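Morning. Coffee machine broken again, so started the prediction first thing and wrote up yesterday's gels while waiting. Chain of 340 residues, entered below exactly as on the submission form.
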Amino acid sequence: MKTLSHTLLLTFIAGLLLSLASTAQASTDVSAALDGAGFGDKDLPTGPVVLNFQAQISGEVVLLGDLFENAGAKADKAVVYAPRPGRKTVYNAKWLYRVARYYGLDWKPTTSRDRITIIRDSITVGYNDIVEAVMTAFEDENIPNDMLAEISNRSMKLYLPADIFPEIAVEDLVYDNRSKRFSAIIVAPANHPAAQRHRVTGKLYKMIDIPVLKDTLRAGDSITKNNLEWQSVRSEKITNDTITSVNALIGMTPRRTLRAGNQIRSTEVRYPVLIQRRSLVTISLVNNFMTLTIQGRALENGSRGDMIRITNIQSKQIIDAEVVGPGKARVRVPSIMAMN
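Came back before lunch.
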């Protein structure tokens, strides 16, 4: 009996101590909650949960806070993988409601048309960037400086993550010196585990720099140095009458409207009009013995060096004369008889 009584006494005391300890712990937990210990202001919702109708992100995952405002402590929870750089994904109301329930958010769609568009930030690597990377890879091939690569797919673009430096690497470059054709693997971002790899093909071309117009000019406009810029063109596209010198264009005027960036041919420009149609012209013939002059009326416009028709005012004969200056023309020797 003593042993049983002693055991019961010990059990009673142990239960009392456990009860007191539990009460003290609960009191501590409540006090901590009231005092804010263990909880930051960021963990507490600042208002009702609201759906974001569009989110632009740069990382590889979509966070709960990207989908909903006031997601509280769970805002940094990863929900789904982000779309590829430069792409977008749309999530509908049904999917969003399942996400909200799973994470314990107090949100329901107001209409079945509720949705969010996730847009992945990106850096665009364009055609010129890829060509530049290929030309850098060709530096070890000892190709002439006037050669330039042209990639078969001129519309090629790469969309890289916005949070990674967009460095491009070129691997497995294969070049045929006879045909000037090449192939290579473009890797971007370089030295990145998630790098994109694209095979490109192309050809090297000999380039020539030619002057072209910066802006469109119309007939009668004067071409100045400020109107021109240099443009590299494949040599095979240059014709015999393509103007390749700036000096051959300065002071000239278009015969008709010329578009910016196009090759300019010698037949498309002329010197400014020095003789206007129906204007009076002084016609002269100069040789070693004498100078003869006569008045005429121009039947057409003429620039320096042009052969135009002029009516002799005295004889009414029509003669051909070369424009040599403003209001001045010179008759070729076989035409001298026309002035008599």
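The mean pLDDT is 84. Going to sketch it on the whiteboard this afternoon.
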